[in-house]
């Protein structure tokens, strides 16, 4: 069930009405309703993978209790590693087995040996990377004595499978979400309206920006061998806005939907394309994943405490693992490696914390220095996205080689002016609202009410005009 579908437009109001007007006086029934609704939402994708979601939930719930009950360190460690091994095992089989099998066969072929690898003909279960990481953070936090084991199975299950975040995040923490699930929630009109406003902006990002950019990004990337350098540059640019509009749009819809039910999810994007260096970009892009790797991998590896070499080593590990998390393809690993290279100067010279506040805070325009820094960071990001989008390493290098040929300076033959207009409009609204949690949170609040409502209506009309076909979100494949 897609957020941008008619089915979801029917599903959400039904759950909302039942939640606030039928079971609103009983917290246990509210949570049970959320759990049943979440399982129904997931089953609409492919009911056959429900067993995997439920098994993962039961596994981590049970091992969490067993760790809490263990009277010895070895006993606690046994249950911890059992959960980690099984979780990563399932993730490895469904997401990475074919990649390793085919890569091994290619490696052997270099020595003159032909091997026909046995591969699995299975569909990747939607959301497996996200709900697996929910469970992993939970068992790690129990093992590290950061939280007690949750005894209420329904409440824990809602934490893992809450439908707004189930298939593409944000990646939640038990320390943040579970306490909200365990306490009584009362309806707040202003919070609900704020949630609807964020959903509106998320739908605009997805349908008007991402889906329209996707048309031209796909056209150019799928026929890269016959495109000019200028067209190829535009293709990379279109994909840059496609993936941001698509993923941050999903996150906005997820956060807005959760807010309708009185629950606040972790923020996942903070205007990353206004970053002044790559370190700032990664503090603002897919925040829940970046902080997950920071807390559960980077810091346990030693973080930044062991000198420059350790910082460099750990940074490369984080980015390579992050790339691999995104998919079983060398292109994602190359993308992670490239971002690690880009961030290295700030790591080595200890300038990675220079830009913490949002750019030009309290001002309409950035300084010349900030503008140039944003432009350079943005172009580096555009370049890296080529590897993320390309089908293979070879096609990525071929794309880049042709893009930087003399035809880069020719007039593009693909010029969708309406898409350019909406990109400029979109980035203008994002810039004006960059100091808020999301662009529309307080945008236009000083306007007369009828003008602000007219602006919202304009967004709704644009969404309906461009929503000719339901398009999946990019991160569903991860």
Based on the model shown, name its key terms:
single chain; 478 residues; mainly alpha; 2 domains
Describe this structure in words.
With 478 residues, this protein is mostly helical. It has 2 domains: 182 residues, no CATH class; 210 residues, no CATH class. It has 17 helices and no strands. The longest helix has 37 residues. The radius of gyration is 23 Å and the shape is globular. It starts with 5 loop residues before the first helix and ends in a 12-residue tail after the last helix.
User: How many discrete domains?
Assistant: 2
How far apart are the termini? Answer: 16 Å
Largest sheet, strands/sense/barrel: none
Indicate the structural class: mainly alpha
Please work out how many helical segments DSSP would assign.
17
């Amino acid at each position: 069930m897609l957020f941008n579908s008619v089915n979801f437009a029917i599903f959400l109001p039904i759950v909302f009405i039942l939640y606030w007007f039928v079971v609103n006086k009983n917290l246990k029934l509210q949570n049970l309703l959320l759990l049943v609704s979440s399982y129904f939402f997931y089953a609409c994708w492919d009911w056959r993978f429900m067993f995997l979601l439920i098994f993962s939930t039961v596994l981590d719930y049970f091992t969490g209790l067993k760790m809490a009950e263990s009277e010895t360190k070895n006993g606690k460690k046994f249950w911890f590693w059992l959960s980690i091994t099984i979780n990563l095992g399932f993730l490895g089989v469904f997401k990475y087995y074919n990649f390793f099998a085919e890569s091994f066969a290619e490696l052997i072929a270099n020595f003159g040996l032909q091997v026909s690898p046995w591969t699995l003909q299975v569909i990747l279960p939607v959301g497996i990377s996200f709900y697996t990481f929910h469970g992993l953070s939970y068992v790690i936090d129990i093992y590290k004595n950061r939280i007690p084991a949750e005894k209420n199975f329904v409440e824990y299950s809602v934490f893992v499978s809450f439908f707004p975040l189930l298939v593409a995040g944000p990646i939640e923490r038990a320390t943040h979400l579970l306490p909200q699930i365990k306490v009584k929630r009362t309806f707040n009109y202003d919070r609900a309206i704020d949630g609807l406003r964020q959903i509106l902006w998320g739908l605009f990002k997805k349908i008007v920006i991402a889906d329209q950019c996707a048309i031209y990004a796909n056209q150019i990337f799928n026929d890269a061998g016959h495109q000019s350098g200028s067209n190829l540059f535009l293709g990379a640019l279109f994909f840059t806005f496609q993936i941001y509009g698509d993923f941050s749009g999903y996150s906005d819809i997820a956060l807005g939907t959760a807010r309708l039910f009185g629950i606040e999810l972790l923020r996942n994007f903070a205007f990353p394309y206004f970053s002044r260096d790559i370190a700032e970009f990664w503090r603002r892009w897919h925040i829940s994943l970046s902080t997950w790797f920071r807390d559960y991998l980077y810091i346990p590896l030693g973080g930044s405490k062991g000198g420059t070499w350790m910082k460099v080593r750990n940074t490369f590990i984080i980015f390579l693992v992050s790339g691999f998390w995104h998919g079983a393809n060398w292109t994602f690993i190359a993308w992670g490696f490239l971002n690690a290279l880009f961030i290295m100067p700030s790591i080595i010279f200890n300038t990675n914390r220079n830009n913490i506040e949002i750019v030009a805070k309290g001002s309409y325009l950035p300084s010349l220095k900030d503008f140039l820094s944003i432009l350079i960071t943005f172009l580096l990001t555009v370049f890296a996205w080529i590897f993320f989008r390309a089908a293979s390493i070879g096609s990525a290098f071929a794309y880049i080689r042709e893009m930087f040929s003399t035809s880069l300076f020719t007039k593009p033959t693909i010029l969708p002016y309406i898409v350019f207009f909406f990109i400029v409009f979109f980035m203008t609204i994002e810039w004006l609202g960059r100091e808020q949690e999301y662009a529309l949170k307080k945008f236009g609040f000083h306007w007369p009410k009828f003008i602000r409502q007219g602006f919202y209506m304009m967004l709704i009309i644009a969404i309906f005009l461009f929503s000719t076909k339901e398009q999946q979100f990019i991160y569903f494949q991860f």
